[in-house]
Amino acid sequence: MRFLGLTMDECVRYFFEGNAIVSVIVLALITLFLFKEGFSFFGQNSTNLRVYRSAGLEFVDILKEQESGHTALTRYVSEVRLAWFRQLTGPGKLSVAQANERLQGFDTFAAQYDEAAAPLRAMLAGGPDAEASLTDIAIALKTKFLVLEDRKVERQQLIDAGKPAEAARLNLTEVDFATELKPLLAIRPLHAQANKDFAAALEDSLRALPKLPTPELDRMSTRLRDLTRQYLDSFPSYAERLASWDYSVPVPWYRSFSAFLFGRQWLTASFWQDWYGILPLFSGSLLVSLVALLIAVPLGVGAAIYVNQLSSSREQRFIKPCIEFISAFPSVVLGFFGIAVLGEALRAISGFDWLSWVPGFPFSERLNILTAGSLLALIAVPTIFSLSEDAINNVPRAFRDASFALGATRLQTILRITTPAALSGIISAILLGFGRVIGETMVVLLCAGNRIAIPDFSSGLGVVTQPVHTMTGIIAQEMGEVVRGSIHYRALFVVGLVLFMLALVINYVAQKIVTRYRISIG
Amino acid sequence: MSTPSTTPTGGGVFTARPSAARTWERYGILVLRSATYLILFCGLAIFGNIVVQGSRTVFKSSAPFINTDFFTRAPETLYIFEHDGKKQELGDREFRAYQADLAAAAAAKGEPAPKVKVLESYVYSAGGIMPNIVGTLLLVAGSMTIALFLGVSAAVYLNEYAKPSRYITLIRLAILNLAGVPSIVFGLFGFGLFVVFLGWNVSLLAGWFTLAFMVLPVIITASEESLKSIPKGFREGSLALGATKWQTIRKNVLPYALPGILTSSILGIARVAGETAPIMFTAAYVVRDKLPWEGLESWTDFFFQGVMALPYHIYVVSSKIPQNEYTERVQYGAAFVFLLLVACVAAFSIYLRNRMRNTYRW
């Protein structure tokens, strides 16, 4: 019996072969579709950045940056006030009203300090005789440009639909950025004077800073002076950037990539400017995974050593299925547990006085890196455990026996012989656990706190008590809401692409380590 | 397999003398042992918490002891309202009926309908989770069928036909890498290919294929393992009698490998059922009035409809509605049912596999 010139057996063979190739095809399709959907992001982002420059948003942002520096300083001022207030009030001390009265001098200073930025704010509002603020001008220009782009698309559609007459009727006058930007650029000559006024006002207000009573507060006030000085020193650079800014300087082609890879902001659906920078998400993913591994590696590897080398076979028959059972816990249930129980429990624990030495304790956000990391650890443990156990199991018996014969104890044998011999396998197990954790979605989506910002590392290890957002979490959260084909949609696919590449690299390295450093058994 | 430790622990003159090394050993072992049991304890704590809290929703103190409403009804909005100075809570349907009753009673007396003051309302916090369970079962059944078909065939090829070559290395590499791809990336891929490119929209079919591809590496590896454990003699005997390769595989390899393949694949089921990320934008709806078999215009519609799924429902109720005494019941209830479902499947597979290991020995 023949079919297309093939025997039955050959048909069957090719059928099976076809199914085997499915994995290759799927992998190729994943790559293809991530690229297909994601790649035009870079083109769109390039336009996005070009408009940002041409419409003068970049120019306004220089001023805004200068203003936000001052805002940060005023925030520090209120921190100082809060610290002083805390020292004054409390059991056996002043009442709130009395304390506020005592702080009146400081409040005058704070108001004056805050008021110092008035010249800069006036500039942002568009100068003395302006009709619209700088922000409004820039946004109007941007909108104009975007409308024009839409019209161009519309014209193309009309032409394609065979309606050239209607297409010709569309108003397609190019936006004349040079003239439109004039009111913005008119602010430049005023900036020098405004800076001078601003600096003078700040220094004036600092002179009014009252003497603070305790050494701790004194340190804070010295720091405030230092920070203000640094801020004042940065004024010339702002002036220079404003002076050298030119809307017509083209945005280099690599900016679109570097703005994505090194962008420190992921800001979408904003009225001002959308930013698609992966750093906040990447750092979030990385921190959560590191915390998870920090917990999971000692436990997983320790358990693997114990089960393989030290436990009785009855214990083994009990522990191994149990850990396998843990691996079957659905991640969404773990995430729910984090929201319902663990987050609150960790926050309560962090409130204990005798634990206040731990960095970051006490914390107020119950959903943070630590909560998500501890739950992810439970997901990583089974992977790390079973792979490490395999690796330890593959160490030849002779190694162990020789060590015992020389009089080593079991622990010495484990630490000096067995574990080093299995190290390549253990490291690859840890890497695969890392891959599992960084790709995990539901736990981080539910428990990591979902705040899109690069965590503040200034508190050292206490950074683990901050909420973050992650790469997997952002895809899961925003994919359902975006418009298909929009730049945001494509940005999410690029994040997926980064995750995919990361997973491939981790897999590759894990395999390389196993094959490269396997101890030859001979 | 590992062997129990073989430390020299004899009695009499061979007893080890106490030394610093032995003290360290004791402590070291203690540390390792506590690490092991800490893992088990954490697992138990989570399992226990969900089971204890969830059983309050799922079980009742009176016959039939199971909260049947929870398993036979769809999620509804919960209303907490005040009437006649009494605080009451009712699901959407009952709340409407209650209001209608009040209005009817008032109309009989010739009074205007009394106003019921709604204090709070929470979506999805009343009723049950029946459509979600149905949806999850459908998703698992479909995707496992596809994955088993593809996976077992691929394993047969790799184990029975393939000779070592570059090409086979490529296939194995693809399988290995596929296993490491994060589930959310599968979700994106499924969305890009099935939902958008092929135009299937959010549908069962899209979910099936996405989940099937995700679990494929697990099935292939498990099947190959099982095929490998069939002794060579089985094949050689059959071939020596003049059977073709396909006859050999069909009659003398697959029947013996199948139990092993199925048991290992059950663990794949646990994975498929437990994943949320891949179905979030390929198959799952937050809420859908109809059950999958209701209101179909033609039989093909069945495959192109989205379903409510239990894991997605748990995500929605735990992230989109606030946590309090009213909402906790349905949150814990759903988590408990889901965990139990997955845990039963996993426990069953682990049990079967351990039994298999002892049954077949050749």
Shape of chain A: flat
Overall SS class of chain A: mainly alpha
Low-confidence stretches of chain B: 1-10
CATH architecture of the largest domain in chain A: Orthogonal Bundle
CATH class of the largest domain in chain B: Mainly Alpha
Tell me the name of the CATH homologous superfamily of the largest domain in chain A.
MetI-like
Report helical residue fraction of chain B: 55-70%
Written as H for each helix and E for each strand, in order along the chain, the element string of chain A is EEHHHHHHHHHHHHHHEEHHHHHHHHH
Task: Supply the CATH superfamily name of the largest domain in chain B.
Answer: MetI-like
Low-confidence stretches of chain A: none
Radius of gyration of chain A: 31 Å
Query: How many domains make up the coordinates of chain A?
Result: 3
Beta-sheet strand percentage of chain B?
5-15%
Strand segment tally of chain B: 3
CATH topology of the largest domain in chain A: MetI-like fold
Strand order in the largest sheet of chain B: 2-1-3
The averaged pLDDT of chain A comes out at: 86
Number of domains of chain B: 2
CATH topology of the largest domain in chain B: MetI-like fold
The end-to-end distance of chain B, rounded to whole angstroms, is 17 Å
| SS-based class of chain B | mainly alpha
Topology (SSEs and partners):
The complex is a heterodimer of chains A (522) and B (362).
Chain A lengths: L1 E2 L2 E2 H31 L1 H15 L2 H32 L7 H7 L1 H12 L2 H7 L9 H27 L3 H6 L7 H4 L1 H4 L2 H20 L7 H19 L1 H10 L10 H7 L4 E2 L7 E2 L2 H32 L2 H15 L3 H20 L18 H25 L3 H9 L4 H29 L3 H6 L23 H8 L8 H30 L6
Antiparallel strand pairs in A: 1-2, 3-4
Helix pairs in contact in A: 1-23, 2-23, 3-5, 3-6, 3-12, 3-13, 5-11, 6-11, 11-13, 15-18, 15-20, 16-18, 17-18, 18-20, 19-20, 20-23, 22-23
Chain B lengths: L19 H39 L9 H5 L2 E9 L2 E6 H17 L8 E11 L2 H32 L4 H15 L2 H15 L6 H25 L3 H9 L4 H30 L2 H4 L29 H11 L4 H35 L3
Helix pairs in contact in B: 1-12, 4-7, 4-9, 5-7, 6-7, 7-9, 8-9, 9-12, 11-12
